[in-house]
Every structure is written in structure tokens, then in C-alpha cells.
Design a protein that fits this description.
This protein is α+β, with helices and mostly antiparallel strands and 147 residues long. It is built from 6 helices and 6 strands. α1 packs across α2.
Length: 147
């Protein structure tokens, strides 16, 4: 099976712009051509969902569901996952980012090389520290509601 990217654009992390952009995709390409939506934040994912709902999708009928995935595990994003209109999101762990930043600051102040041992997380190209995203779906959504 060949994968084809139907469209790629940006809504600049804005829900209203994402709604308009998704409406344009649906109008120009047809909703039947859209298999999934991946957004770089939950607000844009929610904007896409608003558009899909206006076209009769993602309202509870399993035969009219297009998976939409966001990033950030925001409260509105988690609520959309719980109500079934959004498929999932990715939790960007700010606590681990803060821990890594503090470890790096201490290591730098001590003139130590920044490594996995000093940062506490994978370091690539001697400059990128990778804090793993956490997959959030309906199965584990409640765990993230209080974060």
C-alpha cells in the first residue's frame, strides 16, 4: 500500500486557523480522502475536529470517524479524547525537561561534558537532549488529567 500525503500546511498553533484550514482541505480534496489528521498541538487538532464535526464526522458514529492526533495533552485535548472526538495526543513532559535543564546547568557550571549520565536523558550530536513524549489515548487519558 502506497502512502500519500494529501496536504500539509500550518495553522500557526491557532485553533480558529486550523478550523479554516481543515474546512479548505475538506472543500478542495473531499472529506472521503482524509484518513487522519496530525497536528503539532492540541489547539490545532481541536480546530480540525470542529471542522470535521461541521461535516458530520467525529460525533460518535464509528463509521464517520477520522483519527485526529495533537501534541501537549492540554485539558481541552484530554476532554476531546475522553468524549471520543479526538484519537490521541502526546504529553510533552515539562517536569522532565526542567530536571534535564537543571542537571545540564549544574554539569556546565562544573565544566563537565553533557552526556546521558550528566543530563539524565539521551544526548545526540553532543547538543540535543531527548525527553521522550508520552502517548496519550482513551486508555490512559485519565492519568494525565491532573498533570
Amino acid at each position: 500500500m502506497k502512502t500519500v500525503k494529501l496536504a500539509a500546511d500550518t495553522a500557526y498553533w491557532d485553533k480558529a486557523k486550523a478550523t479554516d484550514l481543515m474546512n479548505n482541505f475538506i472543500t478542495s480534496k473531499g472529506v472521503d480522502k482524509i484518513e487522519a489528521v496530525f497536528a503539532n498541538n492540541d489547539d490545532m487538532a481541536l480546530g480540525a475536529i470542529e471542522s470535521l464535526k461541521a461535516h458530520g464526522y467525529n460525533k460518535g458514529d464509528a463509521s464517520k470517524f477520522i483519527p485526529v492526533v495533537g501534541v501537549d495533552a492540554t485539558t481541552p485535548g484530554l476532554a476531546a479524547i475522553q468524549d471520543g472526538s479526538m484519537y490521541g495526543t502526546a504529553y510533552n513532559n515539562g517536569i522532565d525537561q526542567g530536571i534535564a535543564a537543571m542537571r545540564i546547568a549544574v554539569a556546565a557550571a562544573q565544566n563537565k561534558t553533557i552526556t546521558k549520565d550528566t543530563a539524565g536523558f539521551e544526548v545526540t550530536s553532543n547538543k540535543y537532549v531527548w525527553i521522550p513524549y508520552e502517548k496519550v489515548t482513551k486508555d490512559n487519558c485519565s492519568k494525565y488529567m491532573s498533570k
